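Dear Dr. H.,

I hope your travels went smoothly. While you were away I took the liberty of generating a structure for the chain from your last submission, since the lab meeting agenda had it listed for discussion. I wanted you to have the full record in hand beforehand rather than looking at slides cold. The sequence, exactly as received, is reproduced here:
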Amino acid sequence: MAQLQGKIALVTGSARGIGAGIAKAFLAEGAIIWISDIVDQAGQALADGQAAHRINTDGTFPGCNPPRPAGN
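The corresponding predicted structure, in token form, is as follows:
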């Protein structure tokens, strides 16, 4: 059952608990998942273990953003 095949979801608060459960359920249904949580280590562990993507709580993407100029 791939009810979410090709869909993209941003799941906030997804490092653990209900948010992690939702992210895993969406992945199981074929969605592309972006996860975000203030618990960076747990969020990264979920992303690594589930083939999901992670967005930092400040809106940047790990490993994809150049450093910001001072004062910005």
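Two observations you may find useful: The chain has a mean pLDDT of 76. Residues 17-28 form the longest helix (12 residues).

With kind regards,
E. W.
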